[in-house]
Write a structure and sequence with these properties.
Blueprint lengths: L2 H15 L10 H4 L5 E3 L18 H14 L4 H10 L7 E3 L4 H11 L13 E5 L15 E7 L3 E8 L9
Parallel strand pairs: 1-5
Antiparallel strand pairs: 2-3, 3-4, 4-5
Length: about 170
Amino acid sequence: MNKFSGRIIEDVIYEDTKYKYRGEIETVSKCWDMTPCFSYEYLILDDANGFICDKYTMKEYQRYFKRVKEYSKKKIGVLLEESKSGKRRDHFKINEDICPKMFEALKKVFNINHKIDDSMAPSVGHFHLYDVDEQLDPTDFRPVVHFFLGNKGTFHIVCYDPNHKFHSKK
C-alpha cells in the first residue's frame, strides 16, 4: 500500500470513530456486537486524573494494557453480561447515569462552558484495573479507568482515577 492510500484509510477510520459532541449518541444496544477499540483523544493529562504520575509504577501500566488487550478480544455485550452475572470481577460498567465529576470532565474534554444537556451526553463507563477479590497491599492504588462510549464501540478514555475517588460525593 502506498503512503497516499494508507493516509486515506487512516482518515476514514479516524472520522468513523471520532466523537462529535451534539452528534448522534452511540447507545450500548448499537454497540452490543462490537469489540471495543480505545481512543485517547479526550484523555485528561493532569496531576489529578492523568496517566502520568510519579507514583505510578510499571505494574499499573502493565495492568492497564492487560485489560485493554482482554477487552479488545470480546464484544461489548459479552463484557456487560459477564459483569452483570458476576463472572467479571473488575466492575466493568457502561451506563447513562453520569456523576457530577464526569460531567465536569466531559465539559473539559469537549471545551464547553455551559451545562451539558443530559440528552446530548454520551454513555459513560469505567473499569477497575484489579479484580475486587485480588489481595493487594493496603498502600497499593485501586485505580479505575473512566471512559465514554463513542462511534463504532470506541471507548474514549477520559481519566485514570488512581485512588478510586472520582465517584465520591465530596
